[in-house]
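Appendix B. One record, verbatim.
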Amino acid sequence: MSIKAVIFDVDDTLFDYRYCCRKGLTAVQNKFKCFQKLSLHEFEKEQRKLSDEIHGSQMLAGNISLERERIERFKISFSKAGEAADESTAKEAVNIYRENYEASFRAVTGAYELLDALKSRVKIAVLSNSYYDLLMSKLVHCSLDKFVDVVVVSEQAGVTKPDTKIFIETLKKLDCKPDKAVMIGDSWEVDILGAHKAGIRSVWYNQYNQSIPDPSIAPVINSYFPVQKVLNIIFNESEGRVEN
């Protein structure tokens, strides 16, 4: 059946989250020596884990703001690093992180060109485990917001990917049936398996060349160029890997 809508994850699918995150965390490490015990990769991994834990347990219940989440996250990181951090020290770390993170905002290479090519053919949605204001600031800064018809975030939906409910909510807003939509995301567990369970065909954006858990579930791309090859995969006109 013809494709009527394409649903995109945002972080590390349209927006270069990892690049921005690493810029922010590098600045924090440069300021606070206790964090230099960890490699940037280890520090990044720790922050992602803490963010997921706080996001899942408190944000969806409406008990915590993004600013508070960041403060609590860095308090825990200071503790893990063997340093006692008061509120003001944690806030200082947050401010350093945020300043450098936001100064580094950029789109994933090729995202603009792909959305531009899709806009005249389908409805476009973004679906993210995130906060609405933060997500929109990323899209607007990268000039991607003009391509988007529907925005669904876990903050408002009250449920996160990979829960089928948030995919169904997105389809309702698109007025689209599952077999007429395609999901594109970077997380196999959250985006690809979540969409698969909801009956939505998916394409795995795998820019870091991770091993493919199950090639039968989704075709894989690691670049949005050439755009036409990606379009062929989205519209099921061909399948396979798009190499850099």
